[in-house]
Amino acid sequence: MSSSRTPQYLAKVLTSILGCEPSELALVPDAEGFVKIKDLLKALHEEGFGYVNRSHLQEITLSIPDPPIEICDNRIRAKDRSRLPSPATAETPPGQLFAAVRRRAHPVVLERGLQPAPGNHILLAAEREAAIKIGRRIDPQPVILTVAVEACRRQGTIFHQAGEGLFLADVIPPGCFTAPPLPKERLKPARAEASTQSEPAAPSPAGSFTLDPEDILQAPGGGFVRRTAKGKKIDPKRFKRDSWSREKPPWRR
Questions:
Q1: CA 74/CA 67 separation, integer angstroms
Q2: Alpha-carbon dihedral sign for residues 85, 89, 91, 92
Q3: How far apart, in whole angstroms, are the C-alpha atoms of residue 108 and residue 106?
C-alpha cells in the first residue's frame, strides 16, 4: 500500500483539516466541532483523495491507538480542537458575498429569500468560484446568488466570519440578493383537441339503414339486446313469433 493511503497518513490529513483549518476545504464545523461525513468526503475527493470512503474513516478509529478523530453517527470531528478558530461576528464583511442553492429551490428562494434548516446557518463565500465549488456538493449545476451585504444588515442580518473567505448568516431576506432568472419552462406538446363541428356524413347507399348505437346495448353475456325506440327491451322469441304470424304476400299464397 502506498504511504499516502495508509490510515496513519489519512489520520494526519484529517487532523489538520478538522482540527486546524476546515475552511481551507470550505467546511464549517458546528458548535461541537463536527462536520458531516458526506461533506468531508466530497471535499476530500475534490482535493485528490478520491479513494477515501467511510470505511477508511472507520479504519482509522479501529486500527490506530488513541485515534485523533471521532465519529458520531454521520458526523466526524477532531479530538484536539484547540487550534480550531471559532466563528466571530464579521465587523467589516465584503460588500457582496455569494451563496449557492439547489436548482429546485431556485423559485422558492426568489420568493421567500434564503433561510437555513433549523440549527444551521447559511454558508457564503467571498469568491464566486468558491461558492460554485461549495454548491457542486449539493447540485451538479447550482444556482449562485449575489448577496448585497449592506442591504441584509439593514434588515437585521448578522454575518459571522467562519474562516478565510467564508461567512455565515442566519437569513438572507428577499430583495437583498440578485439571482439568475428562472429558466423558461419547456412547452409541453399540446394535445389535439376534438373538433366541435362534426363533418357532414356521407350519403348512405340505397337500401341501407342507419343504426343508432343507443338502440343496441351489450348484454352481460357478451351478446346484444335489441330495444325499441322508447328503450323497451324486445323479447327475441316474441320477435320471431311475430314474424312467423305475419300475413304472407300474395305471390306466396
A1: 17
A2: positive
A3: 6
Contact 136, 142 (CB under 8 A): yes
Question: In terms of C-beta density within 10 A (0-12 exposed, 13-18 middle, 19 or more buried), how is residue 82 classed?
Answer: exposed
pTM recorded for the entire structure: 0.67
Place of cell 485515534: 67
Which one is predicted more confidently, 168 or 163? 168
pLDDT digits (tens, 9 = 90+) for 141-165: 999 999 999 999 999 999 999 988 9
- What's the one-letter identity of residue 236? P
Which 3 state secondary structure label does DSSP give 190?
Answer: coil
CB 22 within 8 A of CB 78: no
- DSSP state, residue 140: S
The residue behind cell 449545476 is 141
How many distinct helices (H) and strands (E) make up the chain? 7, 12
> Could you say which DSSP state residue 172 is in?
B
**Contact predicate 121/160, CB 8 Å:** yes
Summary mean pLDDT of the chain: 81
203, 183 Cβ separation under 8 angstroms? no
Backbone phi and psi for residue 122, each to the nearest 5 degrees, phi listed first: -80, 130
Q: In the sheet where 69-72 sits, what is the strand order?
A: 35-36, 75-78, 69-72
Instruction: Tell me the three cell numbers of residue 230.
Output: 322508447
